[in-house]
Amino acid sequence: MSQIKLSPNASGTGVFTIDAPNSNTNRTFSLPDETGTVLTTESTTMPKVPVVQLQGASTTSVNGSWVRLKWNENSGNHVDTASIFNSSNERIVPTLAGYYFFHLQFRLNNMDWIKAGIVKNQTIPTASNYVSFAENWTSDVGEDDENVLNITTSGVAYMNGTTDYVEFWGMDSDVGGLTFADMYASCFMVSGA
C-alpha cells in the first residue's frame, strides 16, 4: 500500500492549510506517479508544453508531385522543447496526448502554382489525412521567371501521444527542379486530451 507523507520544513514558520469547498459531493485528488511541482492559479512558472519550430533545409520540388519537406536541426531558429521532432523521417511525433496547432509556410520562385499540406499519419498527402491544406497560383501564366509565390497553412489536430505523427509537404504544380525557400514550420500543444 502506498503512503502519504507530509514533510514540514524545520526552518519555516508559515502554516499551510488545505481548505475543502462547500460541497456535498465526495471528491478524489489524484496525484500522478511522477515528481513535479503543483501549479496553482498564482503560479509564475509556465507548465512545460511541447513547442517545435523548424527552419527548412534544402528541398527541391518535383513538377506535379508532393515532396516531403526537409528541416535543419542545426538552424539557430530550431526549437524543440520536448524532443518530439524526428529528423530521420522529418516528422513531429508528440509524446503527450492532446490537441496541437501546426503551421507551415514557404515560397517558390519562377512558377505559377504551388500547394502546401500538413499531413497526419500518412506518407503521401490525400484529402482524407490533411490537418491543413492550401494552394496558391497566379494568373500570369507564361511569365514564370517573374513570379514569386508564398503559401501558408495552419490547422489543429488531436495527437494520441504514442503513434500519431505529422509531416509537412509541398508541391510545385508547374515547373519542377526549384528549391523551396523561406520554409518554416511550427507546432505547439493547445489543449490536453
Task: Give a description of the structure.
There is one protein chain. With 193 residues, the protein is mostly beta strands. The chain has one domain (51-192): Jelly Rolls (Sandwich), CATH 2.60.120.40. The chain contains no helices and 11 strands. A hairpin with a 4-residue loop joins strand 4 and strand 5 (91-92). The radius of gyration is 23 Å and the shape is elongated.
Q: What is the general shape?
A: elongated
Quantity of strands, as a count = 11
Our count of domains comes out at: 1
Helix content: under 10%
Describe the largest sheet.
6 strands, antiparallel
Write down the CATH class: Mainly Beta
Structural class: mainly beta
Model regions low in confidence, pLDDT < 50 over at least 5 residues: none
Tell me which CATH architecture applies here. Sandwich
The residue-averaged pLDDT reads 86
Helix and strand pattern: EEEEEEEEEEE
Key words describing this protein structure:
38% strand; Jelly Rolls; 5-stranded antiparallel sheet; single chain; elongated; 6-stranded antiparallel sheet; 193 residues
